[in-house]
Design the sequence.
DNA sequence: ATAGAGTAGTCACAATGAGACTAAGAATGG
DNA sequence: CCATTCTTAGTCTCATTGTGACTACTCTAT
């Protein structure tokens, strides 16, 4: 059998929603529209949401639960997260990202999912700061000549102050 | 005839190299490896470089110039930028990016190309600051509660201080 | 001679992204 | 009463991007 690759951020995000409560593709897709809570961070169009669900089912992280009549429309196929899926997404939600560049999407998706369901973000924020403190420390000293290094320095400084501001807001912040 | 879409950043970057001097795919691809000057900003694998060249030729921005014996290897196909291609890339190099998120790749590619060939970056940097000053100004005030807005604020601040630091280094900086 | 390393370019396939399409049921309007 | 239109629900197709493996050519070292 072909080895399953790790879920993408999109797939994890969809699984995150599904782990909160059983749902169906169309409803999940609403969260990921540009004006949705998750869509503000990561917009995902409908076909992609359905593809992500297909993969999650293939991987054993989600399964069909039932078909229900739709809200004025065709039947909907309700899916739910499996225990393996819930374990997987819980581990992902607790783990900090490795690169500064993943803060923008992956880390913000995690924060959004945690806050949606009223879970505390304190631990994740603390771990994220620890995970990147080495990166931030390596950027001390005078401004470098190279413009790429200069960019890294100033954006890393922005990211560091973001994490500090997050940390200053007690639990749930 | 199908309307040509605008070149992607990758295509512009390849065209930028080609506009400096006629060259061939393999040599161009070297600049875009992770350790190359352009690759530090935007890495592009060989197949993608050749595809970009195909498109540039289709679009009339590049054309085959000659075939030459390779450096210990097969013949190489040398391409050159057409006048239309040179015009196009010159205009692109002079134009600031519209969104903060495009600074990281598109703007840094422009800077890199300008510096490679010894051209001044002053004008582009000044225009880029003007182009984003509205965005930066809109972020004044106390830290927002929403974590997505908080992220935007702190990273925009990082980007603004990067552009200021760039601006402080006279011509060519 | 032959095995390796670097040069030059191609191929096939997977993943992503965007738009248009089917289809069902409810509401509207002449 | 029938046609239109809106929203819900899901699918299909195609273009673009990204990745690894592949061919082939030339020189060098063993």
Sequence:
């Amino acid at each position: 059998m072909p080895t399953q690759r790790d879920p993408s951020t999109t797939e994890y995000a969809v699984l995150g929603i599904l782990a909160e409560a059983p749902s169906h593709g169309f409803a999940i897709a609403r969260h990921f529209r540009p004006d949705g809570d998750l869509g503000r961070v990561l917009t995902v169009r409908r076909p992609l949401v359905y593809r992500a669900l297909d993969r999650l089912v293939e991987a054993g992280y989600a399964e069909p639960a039932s078909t229900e009549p739709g809200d004025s429309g065709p039947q909907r196929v309700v899916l739910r997260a499996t225990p393996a899926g819930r374990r997987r997404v819980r581990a992902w939600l607790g783990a900090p990202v490795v690169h500064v560049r993943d803060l923008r999407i992956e880390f913000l998706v995690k924060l959004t999912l945690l806050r949606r369901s009223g879970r505390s973000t304190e631990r994740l924020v603390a771990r994220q700061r620890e995970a990147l403190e080495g990166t931030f420390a390596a950027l001390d000293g005078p401004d470098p000549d190279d413009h790429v290094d200069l960019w890294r320095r100033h954006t890393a400084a922005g990211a560091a102050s973001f994490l500090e501001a997050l940390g200053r807001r007690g639990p749930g912040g």
